[in-house]
Design brief:
Helix content is about 40%, strand content about 15%. The protein is of the alpha/beta class. It has a domain at about 5-170: Ribosomal Protein S5, domain 2, CATH 3.30.230.10. The strands form six sheets. The protein has a five-stranded parallel sheet. Strand 6 (about 110) and strand 7 (about 115) form a beta hairpin. The protein starts with a strand and ends in a 13-residue tail after the last helix. Residues about 495-500 have low confidence and may be disordered. The structure holds zinc ion. Zinc ion binds near residues 344, 346, 349 and 356.
């Protein structure tokens, strides 16, 4: 019987569903056909696999060859099926014994000289193969990292002929886990570098502790970018599941692993596909690369409105659906948004030297360009002014603050998960009110304050969430009027009321 079945993995988002490569050799005129792909793709596969087999001094089977990738509805992108097809041909033509493929999966591209190249998304294939208790056969590049997945069994070889030898060995040597499987931790700037900005430091502490999104409004040079890049250094280490998800996403993009929260700062000229995900391969976008970390949108008013509107769904649900042809891939995208904007197009509107020449109408329109659904989801709004010059020139403090603060934030976050199963940022209005445990007097005074500031219900809920985080940082269960008053001070950005400071 000239038939062989080889197990491999497709790629759908960050998962790797199983695919069986069925190879059938029949009598008749020599031909080569891959069922379910276009003729052009079929010819490409034939050229690569044939050259690789012939270059490896193996025999190309002179039969009528039919190859089926099952299930047929799985997307069959890329050259990742080269290796399983080549192995299938060798087994079907009796050049490789059937025992060589038992409980083994194959993944990799072949170059014309028969050498093996790694495929993107090999990490998710490793996780799935490990769950199925299968050994995964791959290219040597990055194999040590794959072998560091607990319980995985990885075989690797530089080329097709060497792999055939490995497969027929009685006890083939598994790839050893990389000597340093721990990924490096990025070095973020310390909180102590933000000099003369106590209000901003407090906002960052709150943002980190409650997971709140943050909008900073201030003239150029006040340290908005620095503040944003301080934030990931304040966030506690990621949960193992989140860490694994971000590794899977980076693996799909061919990027190395990093430990802990990431920091992504896409430019405002980024396309929707780059930011949200998409392109021809339905790859993850910046918002997924920032999963578990910080997404910084500098000069947020410069981003096209259509791009900003696309952020609403992931901000609500923590994931994004990327559609490509008839397939939908879901990628995790639970990021913390930090946005920065100038007070007006020239950036000088709030400065004391009165250098701004923008008309009130232009300023209003500029500030409203980010208002609405996006700012509704941002709990912390901070208006910044330039710090006094003597503070900027003072010697830098010797004590590093971020690491110490991060420990406290970790315990505050753990307390929130214990109490309500999520961070304060993700509390709905009703739940926010419930967990704030306001006394009757505080509630009455808060309602009075809301009325005098003519704030909406959504606005009130945002302040409750921030007040809850303030009380959590104080280690207090009942939110007091003092907490609420401080929370009210974090909503002074003119975008909310569409007005202009006089
Ligand atoms: Zn201006």
């Amino acid at each position: 019987m000239h038939l062989a079945f080889i197990e491999t993995r497709s790629q759908a988002g960050i998962s790797a569903p199983p695919v069986t490569v069925e190879v059938h050799l029949s009598a008749g005129l020599p031909a080569f056909q891959v069922v379910g792909v276009t003729d052009a793709a079929s010819r490409e596969i034939r050229s690569r696999v044939r050259s690789a087999i012939v270059s490896s001094h193996l025999k190309w089977p002179d039969f009528n060859i039919t190859i089926n990738l099952s299930p047929t509805e799985q997307i069959k992108q890329g050259a990742r099926f080269d290796l399983p097809i080549a192995i299938g041909l060798l087994v079907a033509s009796n050049q490789l014994p059937r025992e060589a493929i038992e409980n083994r999966e194959f993944l990799g591209e072949l170059s014309l000289d028969g050498s093996l190249r790694p495929s993107l998304g090999a990490l998710s294939a490793t996780l799935s193969a490990t769950d199925a208790k299968h050994t995964l056969c791959v290219a040597p590049d990055g194999a040590a990292q794959l072998a560091s997945v607990p319980g995985s069994r990885i075989l690797a070889a530089t080329d097709l002929l060497s792999l055939c030898a490995v497969l027929q060995a009685r006890e083939p040597a598994l790839v050893k886990p990389g000597s340093d499987p721990l990924a490096p931790i990025p070095n973020y700037p310390d909180l102590s570098q933000l000099r003369g900005q106590p209000f901003l430091c407090r906002a960052l502490e709150l943002a980190a502790a409650g997971g709140h999104h943050l909008l900073m409004c201030g003239p150029p040079g006040v340290g908005k970018t620095l503040a944003a890049s301080v934030l990931p250094g304040l966030l506690p280490p990621l949960q193992p599941k989140t860490q694994q998800q971000i590794w899977l996403i980076r693996d799909l993009m061919g990027l190395p692993r990093v430990s802990g929260p990431t920091f992504r700062a896409p430019h405002h000229s980024s396309t929707i596909a780059a930011l949200i995900g998409g392109t021809a391969r339905a790859t993850p976008g910046e918002i997924s690369m920032a999963h578990g970390g910080v997404l910084f949108l500098d000069e947020v008013t410069e981003f096209p409105r259509a791009v900003l509107n696309q952020l609403r769904q992931p901000l609500e649900s923590g994931e994004i659906t990327v559609v490509r042809a008839q397939h939908q891939y879901r990628y995790p995208a639970r990021f913390q948004l930090v946005a920065a904007m100038n007070p007006c197009p020239c950036g000088q509107a709030d400065s004391e030297d009165g250098g701004c020449r923008c008309s009130p109408d232009i300023i209003r329109r500029y500030r409203q360009s980010v208002s609405g659904p996006l700012t509704d989801r941002i709990d912390l709004h901070v208006t910044l002014t330039k710090p006094p010059h003597e503070q900027l020139l003072s010697p830098p403090p010797e004590r590093r603050l971020s690491a110490h603060l991060m420990q406290r934030i970790a315990s505050v976050q753990a307390h929130q998960y214990g109490r309500q199963g999520c961070l304060n940022r993700d509390l709905s209005g009703e739940r926010a009110l419930a967990v704030c445990a306001l006394s009757a007097t505080t509630r009455a005074r808060f309602i009075e304050a809301l009325a005098s500031l003519s704030l909406s219900a959504r606005s009130a809920h945002r302040r409750l969430r921030v007040a809850r985080t303030l009380a959590d940082l104080d280690g207090i269960e009942d939110v007091s009027m003092a907490h609420l008053n401080t929370a009210l001070s974090f909503r002074e950005t003119p975008t909310e009321v569409g007005g202009v400071k006089g």
